[in-house]
Each structure stands twice: as C-alpha cells, then as structure tokens.
Specification:
This protein is mostly helical. The chain has 3 domains: about 90 residues; about 100 residues, Orthogonal Bundle (Endonuclease III, domain 1), CATH 1.10.340; about 55 residues, Orthogonal Bundle (Arc Repressor Mutant, subunit A), CATH 1.10.10. The chain has 14 helices and 3 strands. It has a 3-stranded antiparallel beta sheet. Strand 2 and strand 3 form a beta hairpin. The termini are far apart. The mean pLDDT is about 90.
Length: about 280
C-alpha cells in the first residue's frame, strides 16, 4: 500500500517544536568546526568548495594548512597552479582546486578583491552552483537564503517525512523556507547540518530515501583515481613523458592518454614536445 505524502505546510506550533529540537541538539552537540569560527568570505568560500563531495574530517585536515599557504584572494590568484594542486592533494576532485584559483583571479580582476554577496553573482563564478552560492551567503554574510545540502536534507526527511518512502527536494524546499530562522540564518544552518549529520551517522535517515540520490561510483580503478595519480606525479616532477606517467601511475597507456587529453582541455596540464607539466 502506498504511503500518503505530506500535503500541508507545518503550523506555527510544529515550526516552533522543530526549531527547539534543532537548536537543542546544536546547543548540546554542536561541532566546533574551524570554518565556523569566522565570517571571512574568502575563508568561507574555501571551506564550501572543499566540502563539495568531501567528508568533513578530510577537510579539517587540509583547511587551515591551505589557508596558511594562500591566506587571501590575492595570494591564491598569484600562486602557481602546481602549488595549488599540491596543496589540494588528499581532497579529491581536483577540478575544484582549479575552480577555486580561477575564482580568486576573477574576484581580483572583476570585483576589486571583494567576494560578491549575492547568490546570482556568485553563481557566475566557476565551480559555484546555486546551493553553494546560497551557503556562502548564509555563512559569510548571514543572509536568510534558502538552500539544501545533504545534511539539511536529512534533517527535514527525519522530522517531517518519517513515514514517506521517497522524498523529493521540491517537497523539502518549502519547509526550509517556512522554518528558516531569519534572525540568524548562519547559526540556524549550522544547527540543521549537525542534526542531519547525526541522523545519518546513527542511520535514522538513509540517503536513498531522497528521490535524487545517486550512489557514488567506486573510486578504486576509476578514471578519478588515475587523474589523481597523474596530477600527483606531475606535482612531484616538473615534466614527464607519457611513458613515465604511465609507469608512475601504474596504469595502462589506453587509460592514461585520454585522461591526459581531458586534463589539458580543462586547463590543468599542457604538453610540449612530448613532455607534460602542470599549467603555470
């Protein structure tokens, strides 16, 4: 028998009870994450890009060291790409490192070194989708914007959709809007994320309950793994031949060659007279 979907928005009492639950958990169990100790827009941007598709624990290990190397937009914009990629090692999805450096260059060139504070302008920058832009606005500028990420999604599914088998983000978004604490959205979203993270950790909410859930493909043996090995090799050696890259990455040339071509097309790598290197 199909389970009836929730049809009505929550009333004031239910909203109040939800907020009390979320803030109560945050008061007693809130995580002291380093990017929560600042409202510096650059620092928030770095944390949000790092947190895309990467677990919090791994980001904590890299975040402060990265900021020590590249403390502001000017430093990151003027850094060599090889230095940026080297600092990014261990976070995966290296396109984000290139995107972050490109953002820094755009901010310096187009915005006089000041990160835009509107969702629409932020989405014009590479690597920033609407949810990431809204998160930056909430955490850096305390703007009462509406967005969803994985832990926020879990918080709403666990409270408002306990009996519903499948939940779509379009069902969650109106609830995010009506329950939003507009007096302090920064604090509210931090609290929501911690509550959702707890639900997922204790398996009270499964990611697969969301209609848009897609299980991540295996990393071992994937093109992502080979990409990472290629970039790591090129960071260690200024120039390498294709044969040397194949040997260093322990991969077959049929796998390495098309990945090198894609990396060149993305602006990571250039080839000259049979030698490959990280773009300057």
């Amino acid at each position: 028998m199909a389970i009836t979907k929730r049809k009505s928005e929550p009333g004031q009492v239910e909203v109040r009870e939800f907020r009390t639950l979320i803030y109560g958990h945050y008061r007693d169990n809130g995580r002291a994450l380093p990017w929560r100790q600042t409202d510096n827009p650059y620092h928030i941007l770095v944390s949000e890009i790092m947190l895309q598709q990467t677990q919090v624990g791994r980001v904590i290990e890299k975040y402060e060291g990265y900021l020590a190397l590249f403390p502001d937009f000017r430093a990151l914009a003027s850094a060599r790409l090889s230095e940026v990629v080297k600092a990014w090692q261990g976070l995966g999805y290296n396109r984000r490192a290139l995107a972050l450096k490109t953002i820094a260059q755009r901010v310096m060139d187009d915005y006089s070194g000041v990160l835009p504070s509107s969702v629409d302008e932020l989405t014009r920058l590479p690597g920033i989708g609407r949810n990431t832009a809204a998160a930056i606005c909430a955490f850096a500028f305390n703007e009462p914007v509406v967005f969803i990420e994985t832990n926020i999604r879990a918080a709403y599914m666990g409270y408002f959709f306990k009996e519903q088998e499948t939940v779509h983000d379009m069902e969650i978004l109106p609830l995010v809007e009506v329950t939003l604490d507009k007096t302090n959205p920064r604090n509210w979203y931090n609290a929501l994320m911690d509550y959702g993270a707890m639900l997922k950790k204790t398996r009270q909410v499964a990611n697969s309950k969301n209609s848009g859930y897609r299980k991540q493909s295996l990393f071992t043996g994937s093109d992502r793994q080979i990409r990472g090995r290629i970039l790591k090799a090129l960071v260690s050696s200024p120039t390498m031949t294709e044969a040397e890259i194949v040997q260093e990455t322990r991969s077959h040339v049929e796998r390495v060659r098309p990945i090198l071509l894609r990396l060149a097309g993305e602006g990571f790598v250039r080839e000259s007279h049979g030698l490959y290197c990280i773009m300057a």
